C-alpha cells in the first residue's frame, strides 16, 4: 500500500464529475487499498478518488471512531443513493482536501446506498448518523461538489482564500 497525496482545494479536479468504474481491476483494488491507508493516516473517515487525483466513481469510508473496535472499511464503486429520509441531520463536516476548516451542513439523516464492491457484487445498505453524512459527502465529491458548496458565499470565499494561502505556504516549504 502506498500513501497518496491528498489534493487541496481549490483545484479544478475537485470540481469535476467522475467517470463510472467499468470493472474491478487490479489497479482499482490497489487504488482502494492506497486510499484506505491514506484515509486512516490522515486521519479521516472518508476519502473519494478525486481527492487523490483519480477521476473515477470510487470512495472509501470507515466511520467507526472507537480506537478499541476493529476497523470497518467500506469501499464503494459507482455508489448511488437510492433513498433519502425526510428527517434531516446537521453535522459539523470537515474534508481532508480542506484541512482545519469545518462547517455545519444539513443533509438527510438516513440514506440507502447501492454500489459495486471489490468482489464485483452489487451491495445495498442503509446508513444513518455519521455514516449517512459521510456517504453523502463522498458521493458529492464524485459529482464535483464540496461541503463548501452548502455554505453562504462569504464563508465559502473566506475558506477558499485561506486555502490558497495554505497552498502557497506549503509550496514554499
Characterise the protein shown here.
- With 173 residues, the chain is α+β, with helices and mostly antiparallel strands.
- It has one domain (12-172): Peptide Deformylase (Alpha-Beta Complex), CATH 3.90.45.10.
- The chain is 29% helix and 29% strand.
- The chain has 3 helices and 7 strands.
- The protein has helices spanning 26-41, 129-142, 153-172; strands at 46-48, 58-61, 74-84, 88-95, 98-108, 110-116, 122-128.
- Strands 1-2-3-6-7 form a 5-stranded antiparallel sheet. Strands 4-5 form a two-stranded antiparallel ribbon.
- A hairpin with a 5-residue loop joins strand 6 (110-116) and strand 7.
- The longest helix is centred in the last third of the chain and has 20 residues, at 153-172.
- It is globular, with a radius of gyration of 16 Å.
- The two termini are 26 Å apart.
- 33% of the residues are buried.
- The model has no long low-confidence stretch (mean pLDDT 96).
Strand fraction: 25-35%
CATH architecture: Alpha-Beta Complex
Count of helix runs = 3
Estimated radius of gyration: 16 Å
**What is the total tally of β strands?**
7
Could you tell me the mean pLDDT?
A: 96
Low confidence ranges: none
Overall body shape: globular
CATH first level: Alpha Beta
Structural class: alpha+beta
Helix/strand order: HEEEEEEEHH
The CATH homologous superfamily corresponds to: Peptide deformylase
**Strand order of the biggest β-sheet:** 1-2-3-6-7
Helix content: 25-40%
Number of domains: 1
Main sheet, how many strands, which sense, barrel?
A: 5 strands, antiparallel
Amino acid at each position: 500500500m502506498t500513501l497518496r497525496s491528498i489534493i487541496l482545494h481549490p483545484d479544478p479536479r475537485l470540481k469535476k464529475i467522475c467517470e463510472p468504474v467499468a470493472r474491478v481491476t487490479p489497479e482499482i483494488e490497489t487504488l482502494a487499498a492506497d486510499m484506505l491507508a491514506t484515509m486512516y493516516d490522515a486521519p479521516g473517515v472518508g476519502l473519494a478518488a478525486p481527492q487523490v487525483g483519480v477521476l473515477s466513481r470510487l470512495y472509501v469510508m470507515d466511520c467507526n471512531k472507537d480506537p478499541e473496535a476493529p476497523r470497518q472499511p467500506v469501499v464503494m464503486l459507482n455508489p448511488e443513493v437510492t433513498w433519502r429520509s425526510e428527517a434531516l441531520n446537521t453535522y459539523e463536516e470537515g474534508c481532508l482536501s480542506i484541512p482545519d476548516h469545518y462547517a455545519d451542513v444539513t443533509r438527510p439523516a438516513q440514506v440507502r446506498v447501492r454500489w459495486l464492491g471489490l468482489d464485483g457484487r452489487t451491495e445495498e445498505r442503509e446508513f444513518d448518523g455519521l455514516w449517512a453524512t459521510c456517504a453523502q459527502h463522498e458521493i458529492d465529491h464524485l459529482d464535483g461538489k464540496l461541503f463548501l458548496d452548502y455554505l453562504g458565499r462569504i464563508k465559502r470565499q473566506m475558506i477558499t482564500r485561506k486555502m490558497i494561502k495554505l497552498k502557497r505556504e506549503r509550496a514554499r516549504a
